[in-house]
Amino acid sequence: MISLAALVLIAAPAPVAPHPDPSQSPAAAQEGRFALTTAPQSFDPLHADATANQVLQRQVYEGLVEYAPGGPEAGIQGLLAASWEASADGLRWRFTLREDARFHDPAEDPLWEGGSRPVFAQDFVESWLRMADPRLGPRGYWAFEGLILGLDEFRDACSASDAEAEQAWQTAREDGVAGLKALGPRTLELRLHRADPWFLNRLASPYFVAYPAEAVARAGAEFLNQPVGSGPYWLQSWTPGSGAILERVPSWRGQTLPDGRPAASIERLRFRYVAEGSTRTLLFEQGEIDRLPPLQDAFARLMPNGELSEELQERGVVLHQVDVPDLSMLCFNMLDEAVGEIPGDAAGNRQRRLLRQAVALAFPYERWHRVIRNGSWGLPARGFLPPALPDAADTADCPYRREDHEAARAKLAEAGWPAGRGAPQLKLDLGGTDPVNLAIGEMFREAMAEIGLEVLVVPNSWAELSTKMRNGEAQIFLRAWTLDWADPVNLLEIFHGAHLAPGINRCNYVDPGYDRDLDALRNQPAELRGPLLARAVERLNEDLPAIPIDHRKGYLLV
């Protein structure tokens, strides 16, 4: 959650690693050291929904295409694809793979003689079929759904019974599915249900990578700890939930950056999970990690007035700023009896909708921006769509995204809970136990107390919160979504009823009308989407499965 995600996973590098500083010692110049802000758990691409997992996986796996150095504005370039062509209607795509693309197996007893073999078109077929098999618990199928001919039908067959699933797999291995076929060793053909102007950007996301079926068969359930890919690095050692060391593959085909420097030139990448922002800042200042997204109090010290401090300039630190479309939000679990929508309970649902609106009107947006975003590295939201999207200006602002305690109290009174009397206790689950998360919890508790609502704040590790969100056990929680490609539908997907938790719809929001509008949006050309897009956003504005807070700005010190 690099696609556009490549630009926002700024706690760690893309495979295009920075060129070593010649002023460093020879040993230090051979190692890149990075701190992950959340705990990595898996090298299986089926689990590429978590940011830390994506960061590590991107060093090992490759897809057909990637963003060119410089970000989305620089366009798309081939990765494992040497070339591609599309039909005039955008429904048929044909990709030719690079002749020098190879998988690399670091095992002592490798799968193939010499430890490598070519990447074939069939590897994409089987990797994407695996993402479509619901029995395996894939978390990225939402990116494929309704797009490739025959793939949804394959997924349905795998859902029916084990016997039908095995038959579906046997047929698909031999012949592919209608829209996903290997026409030869290096030719992959894709046929789509609909033309997608963002199709190449979609393919650049981490869900569309390829890996060898032999590695999956060998490792079984342990594939999440034993990755085999075609990327520039392979896994040397790792402790799930803690960190990993990756070594450069000696025989990787190589790639040259636009300025002539070699990509992935660092020999070793060392990642470690560091939960607290203050600790990450200290490690950067001490020279123990090489990149830092400056946050909270460190922002003002390291970047006074938004510019590098003189000390950092003297050390040769470089500042990068990347603005990508994203949304930070306060989310409600719509299955929760205190704050959600319960089927058949019209009166209760009206009360709970008023409660969510009251919470939105009482949220401490100004204090959040001043304390959590340091007054600078977040853009206050007007609504659900990031302003960087061209469609955002044509959708309505969220009417409850403002601080208005009088209006909040009126909503509670209308719900039958004047001054909060009789209202249910709320529970905010935090995604960390560090001082910043604790400050967020206290800030929220105090703001709700202003209108008479009682809040229980529950600190969790990020892994604990993730589990609660996937299991539908968190009542209220904070979440940020960075668009994998700059299409508003990519954000609106996280509220689609087909993606309920453990899928990407962690709010568990279900509105058949919203789902119909979103399904229709997917199939409309950009120039005809305005009314449907506006109506979908209006539904979110009124139902409030989440409250839009702000859009983060990306700063990175290197």
Would you kindly provide a brief summary of this structure?
By secondary structure, the protein is α+β, with helices and mostly antiparallel strands. Helix content is 32%, strand content 18%.
How would you describe this structure to a colleague?
It contains 19 helices and 20 strands. With 558 residues, it is α+β, with helices and mostly antiparallel strands. It has a six-stranded mixed β-sheet, covered by helices on one side. Strands 1-12-11-10 form a four-stranded mixed β-sheet. Helix 5 packs antiparallel against helix 6 (162-175), helix 12 runs antiparallel to helix 14 and helix 18 runs antiparallel to helix 19. The longest helix has 17 residues, at 346-362. The chain starts with a helix and ends with a strand. The model is unreliable at 1-28 (pLDDT under 50).
Which short descriptors sum up this protein?
disordered N terminus, 32% helix, 558 residues, four-stranded mixed sheet, 18% strand, alpha+beta
